[in-house]
Amino acid sequence: MFFKQSLLILKRDLKIEFRNKSLLLSMIIFAVLFQVFLQIVFDANIEAIKKIAAGVLWIPILLSALLGFSKYGIAERENDALTGLLIAPVDRGAIFLGKLLGNLLFVFIVVIISVPVFFLFLKQPFPESIGLLLFTLFLGSWGFVALGVFFTTLAQSSSITDLLVPIMIFPLAVPLFLAISQLTEMALYPSIVMGQDLWVLLLVGYNILFTIAPLFLFDILLEV
Amino acid sequence: MQLKNVSLAIEDKPVLRSINLNWAHGEAIALLGANGAGKSSLLKVMSTLLHPSTGKTTMPEGMSLQKWKSKLGVVFPETFLYSSLTGYENLLFYQKLYGKTDNEQIEQVFNQVNLSRVQQERVETYSKGMKQRLAIARAFVHQPTHLLLDEPFDGLDLASKTILERLLKEKNKQGVGYVLVSHDSAHAWDLCDRAVLLHNGKIVLETPCTEKTYRSFMNQYQGWLKEKQHDVF
Ligand SMILES: Nc1ncnc2c1ncn2[C@@H]1O[C@H](COP(=O)(O)OP(=O)(O)O)[C@@H](O)[C@H]1O
Ligand SMILES: [Mg+2]
């Protein structure tokens, strides 16, 4: 029942998105534009971009994900459809999971399009370790999306306004940012290899925490 | 369902005060009262959307919360509909949400609210009355045994009102109970076993709905309406 309902919510969101074609497209355009912009800014200096390559790779993805969070509850806000979900025998964790999967899908699509653009412009054609890069991209965006969807779901059904969500996300996102910037640097350039296992462990732990905990937390947090 | 001494405050403002109400299985209750009396809030408490500040709600026969929710059908002022989905997709979504798949039931409710012709069209193309009828169909699509209806006749034309009246009577015969909020007492009288009058968050009058009781109920209702709000306490 739990997973069926999550998939049901996911499928409904995708159907609505497919018809309106608003969110995914703007997320992609936003990320690619931003990626191109950053590349142009740093184009003159290859050594400079080495130092901030992880940032140039990630910033468009993270901001594009944030754009997704802000549009997160549009389907439910219309006609108070959220209440329609809440009066049904649906676990809030199932709503979270459905929303998480939808947001993840969109962000992964953004990653698939914007990362090749990054390498297209970068003068160094190949990363040091493709495996580590893919791993970091996958878990890094997963962790950020899980964190974001968690807070947006929380905001949606309490008195916190949507505007506060990015502000609340950032302190909790710091360990994630550290892990993905370190791991991305290691994946891109051979010279820096330090404490890789530790960062991998942090990233994995972070993802587990922010994916699994919300599944159970909502009913405790919101049934006050 | 049973409410015992239920009080509700929203942002420190008392909205419901010591409500005691027993909703027997299959019973049709008309919930009447002026604007702001607390009718919608009371329905929200019964649907478990709002939790009472004090007092207790008990589900029928020790039903669990999830069980109670699955038996409940709700028509609230908002339709809960997704406007870029078709009427059919909306009903299918809500039916599956309740763990059911029964296409015949969907066909049947579309027939009952007279929307079969437009079920494959997007809800954004519907008129207000059609949306309201679809919201009613949505409330019935998982075959609930208890209904909470917050002014369900709002926005319906005469023909649709008749359809809904007939539907409610038919369901009631099959053992489905409902709490019907309406500002048209005469209209509601015809559809209820018992009438409950809410005034400033308090139940001030309860009477069975018969022809004999109607006149005296209306007299008292009018009396309460004239009362200034603060005079009651
Ligand atoms: N979300 C809310 N915030 C503040 N006050 C509310 C809220 N919901 C209801 N109220 C107050 O509770 C009272 C009862 O409202 P309601 O239950 O909607 O009455 P009715 O449905 O009988 O018109 C009103 O005075 C209203 O102002
Ligand atoms: Mg109301």
Rg calc of chain B:
18 Å
| Tally of individual helices of chain B | 8
Strand element count of chain B: 9
Profile the largest sheet of chain A. none
In angstroms, what is the radius of gyration of chain A? 18 Å
Distance separating the two termini of chain A: 25 Å
Tell me which oligomeric state these chains represent. heterodimer
Strand fraction of chain B equals 15-25%
Mean pLDDT of chain B: 94
**Largest interface, with Cβ-Cβ < 8 Å?**
A-B, 23 and 27 residues
Shape of chain A: globular
Question: Per the principal axes of the C-alpha atoms, what is the gross shape of chain B?
Answer: globular
- Percent of residues in helices of chain B comes to 25-40%
Strand order, sheet with most strands of chain B: 5-6-7-3-8-9
For the biggest sheet of chain B, the summary is: 6 strands, mixed
The overall average pLDDT of chain A, rounded, is: 88
Describe this structure in words.
- Chain B: InterPro entries: AAA+_ATPase, ABC_transporter-like_ATP-bd, ABC_transporter-like_CS, ABC_Transporter_VariousFunc, P-loop_NTPase.
- Chain B: This is ABC transporter ATP-binding protein.
- Chain B: Keywords: ATP-binding, Nucleotide-binding, Transport.
- Chain B: Pfam families: ABC_tran.
- Chain B: One of its GO terms (molecular function) is ATP binding.
- The complex is a heterodimer of chains A (224) and B (233).
- Chain A is mainly α and 224 residues long.
- Chain A has one domain (2-221).
- Chain A is built from 9 helices and no strands.
- In chain A, helix 2 packs antiparallel against helix 3 (46-70), helix 3 (46-70) packs parallel to helix 7 (130-156) and helix 6 crosses helix 7 (130-156).
- The model of chain A has no long low-confidence stretch (mean pLDDT 88).
- Helix content of chain B is 37%, strand content 24%.
- Chain B has 8 helices and 9 strands.
- Chain B has a 6-stranded mixed β-sheet with strand order 5-6-7-3-8-9, sandwiched between helices. A 3-stranded antiparallel β-sheet of chain B has the order 2-1-4, covered by helices on one side.
- The relative contact order of chain B is 0.18.
- The A-B interface holds A 1, 4-5, 8, 12, 15-16, 19-20, 75, 78-81, 83-90, 223 and B 47-49, 51, 66-67, 69-70, 72, 74, 76, 78-85, 89, 93-94, 96-99, 138.
- The structure holds adenosine-5'-diphosphate (ADP) and magnesium ion.
